[in-house]
Amino acid sequence: MKIICRCEDVTEEEIVQKIKEGYQTMDDLKRIMRVTMGLCQGKGCRKHIAKILSRELNIPIEEIVQPTYRPPVKPIPISATIDKT
Ligand code: FES
To answer: What is the CATH code for 3-81?
Structure first.
């Protein structure tokens, strides 16, 4: 068992199974399994999932469309939100 998305605890076998069920894009997998939606926002799993999709669908990795990237949620001090001009 190889964990691909550590934030959402998703294994390679689970991803391959979903691809075989017809979820064949990064967005499909994101919506059905929450991969790339964890605390790291896909930093730890995005490339691995693209490789699995490429391998399973037999298409070049460059053709795998990446989901929208959002920066990770990180607490900031209130003072950072105050305009100091
Ligand atoms: S490892 Fe997948 S969202 Fe963090």
So the answer is: 1.10.10
- In degrees, rounded to 5, the angle at the alpha carbon of residue 45 between the alpha carbons of residues 61 and 70 is 95
Q: Which pTM does this prediction carry?
A: 0.80
Locate the domains of the chain by residue range: 3-81
Q: How far is the CA of 84 from the centre of ligand 1 (A)?
A: 36
60-67 long-range contacts, CB within 8 A, separation 24+: 64/25, 64/26, 65/25, 65/26, 65/27, 66/26, 67/26, 67/27, 67/30, 67/36, 67/42
Q: Is 6 in the pocket of ligand 1 (CB under 6 A)?
A: yes
Give per-10-residue mean pLDDT for the chain (85 aa): 96 98 95 93 93 97 84 76 78
Q: Please report the pLDDT score of residue 70 as a whole number.
A: 65
In short, whether 36's Cβ falls inside 6 Å of ligand 1 is yes
